[in-house]
Design a protein that fits this description.
By secondary structure, the protein is α/β, with parallel strands linked by helices. It folds into three domains: 7-82, Winged helix-like DNA-binding domain superfamily/Winged helix DNA-binding domain (Arc Repressor Mutant, subunit A, Orthogonal Bundle); 92-164 and 274-305, D-Maltodextrin-Binding Protein, domain 2 (3-Layer(aba) Sandwich); 169-267, D-Maltodextrin-Binding Protein, domain 2. It is 38% helix and 21% strand. The strands form three sheets. Strands 4-3-5-12-6 form a five-stranded mixed sheet, with helices on one face. Helix 8 links the parallel strand 8 and strand 9. It is rod-shaped, with a radius of gyration of 32 Å. The termini are far apart.
């Protein structure tokens, strides 16, 4: 079966509107002979004369009148699809966005993000998902609109990235822990404590804190492994174990725990926003990306901006 020529829809719509080959040709910027050939093709395709002589003019056949009622909405729909995007109307926007983030993002930024979205686009719903790995499969298949986290090897090369903020590693212990009263903590004293390691897969590995200690010839004694920061902080709250966590990401999770600066340099983490190129020029998606960036800049928490004791 021969594929239909959809250009004929526009031609037929103009012909039936003008009911004059010369005027239709002028509107479509064609020569009269080209328009006559197009009309001949339409007659063959539809099996109907469409326009017939009536004196010195042309009049539509009943079949043409029937087609005109159906074609005009189709042409309008096609023009709407091909028209450049108009200004985004946030008040009328109705859409659900899925955000996948690591532990701490929702607890620290989720409430402010929901409030900001509700104020600007009340018809928008946010769906927050936990991020168990660094795979970009969700962004690629469209089940995830945005992700936050640290760039990793599992992130596809086509994924777009925007830095949100920098975070630093800190130590956390319960309020009655001996380290909470220690002044001038050394790297040796820190390493001699019993520690909690965080691993998504539950496997003891080497992280930034371990790398920094290794450069000093030191090693942590890991007594427990958790899959996330929430569990690590819960253990620290009920034991004399030390947890190392990102400061800003865990600001609202640390509660009454004692936080302290690590007594040795550890490279900072850059927390970024990720999305698939398919959404790059989507006005609604662009708006949401801007909102996330604004919220992360404005709602980092007071103590997260102040130097820690220790």
């Amino acid at each position: 079966m021969t594929a239909p020529d959809f250009n004929l829809l526009l031609t037929l719509d103009v012909l039936l509107t003008e009911q004059n080959v010369a005027r239709a040709a002028k509107r479509l910027r064609l020569s009269p002979s080209a328009m006559s050939r197009a009309l001949a093709r339409l007659r063959v395709t539809t099996g109907d004369p469409l326009l017939v002589r009536a004196g010195r003019g042309l009049v539509p056949t009943p079949r043409a009148l029937e087609l005109q009622e159906r074609i005009s909405p189709l042409v309008q729909a096609i023009e709407d699809v091909l028209r450049p995007l108009s200004a985004l109307n946030l008040g009328a926007l109705s859409r659900t966005f899925t955000l996948r983030s690591s532990e701490g993002f929702v607890e620290n930024f989720g409430a402010a993000l929901v409030e900001r979205v509700a104020a600007e686009a009340p018809g928008v719903r946010l769906c927050f998902m936990h991020k168990p790995d660094k795979s970009s499969a969700g962004l690629r298949d469209g089940t995830v609109d945005l992700e936050t986290g640290v760039t990793g090897a599992g992130m596809g090369p086509e994924i777009r990235t925007q830095a949100l903020f920098q975070d630093r590693w800190i130590g956390v212990v319960r309020a009655v822990h001996p380290l909470s009263q220690t002044v001038g903590l050394t790297a040796e004293q820190f390493a001699q404590c019993r520690h909690i390691a965080v691993s998504r897969r539950g496997v003891l590995g080497v992280g930034p804190v371990d790398d920094a200690l290794a450069q000093l010839g030191l090693q942590r004694h890991v007594a427990a492994i958790t899959s996330g920061f929430v569990a690590a902080l819960a253990l620290a709250n009920g034991t004399d174990l030390v947890a190392c966590v990102p400061e800003r990401h865990t600001h609202k999770l640390r509660g009454h725990l004692h936080s302290f600066a690590l007594p040795f340099p550890v490279p900072a983490l850059t927390i970024s926003l990720f999305w698939h190129p398919r959404h790059q020029a989507d006005p609604a998606h662009m708006w949401l990306r801007r909102v996330v960036q604004d919220v992360c800049s404005d709602h980092l928490g007071g103590s997260a901006k102040d130097p820690l004791p220790g």
